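General statements about sequence and structure are easier to judge against a single worked case. Part of our work consisted of pairing the sequence of a single chain with a tokenised description of its backbone. The amino acid sequence and the backbone structure tokens for this protein are reproduced below.

***
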Amino acid sequence: MRRFDRHNEIEANLLEQGSLTYLLGGRRIRIVAGRLALFWAAVPHRIVDFDRCPPYGVMTIPLGWFLQWRLGKELVDPILHGQVVIEADDRCREPDRMRFDAWIRDAGSRSEERRRICLLEVEARLRRLALSLRKCQGVRGGGRAASGLGEGAIGRAEEMAAFIARNYAGRLTPDGIARHVGLHKNYAMAVFRRTFGTTLLDHVIQHRLSHAQRRLVTSEEKVVNIAFESGFGSLSRFNEAFRRAFGCTPRQYRRQNTAA
């Protein structure tokens, strides 16, 4: 995956072998075989490394459904704050592999009853994960939220992405981002675009929109306040960027995702 991907769903990954590493929100997150991993895919992400990783299981859950299930803040909060939640209990490896295979089959089935069963089972599995996190919060073994840059050095483009992820709500310019990594502005812009397939400013806007999405569906804050909190200089710029990205206004988006 050379370019960053983003879509407004919760993504679940399950590997049978090896490992893969995501760059997600400026952080490197390693996922190993047999451990169910969840993250909010509205945060820009791409695979930057893998080891003995054949095709693996991927399932997406619409954000509205995920929030409607009211799974508990131990699971929902870290995911909506751009973290990756990874199952840490080794006893779940084999059951999860069997469940995932069945979910993929049933989700694509023509049977409405099978699709309904699939949704109920996915919800139940996430409730178990939330319960595990609740019981083992602060204790290794129940589940964990992966954060931080992880191990290993990162390149200049990734360093810029990490800087943006930490500072997108402030006043960012290509000059300031380039200075942070010790590069000339034009060269920094070229390196970033070549690596991520997008411009520095578009990447900043993606982060701001992801922040706004979360605030719109998880709070009753006024839209104008969310606009400024997310880093937009005016409500009109926020509305324009939001409509261009999602095809609706922030208010319409809030209604569609909180109707349940």
Remarks:
- The domain at 9-146 is CATH 2.60.120 (Jelly Rolls).
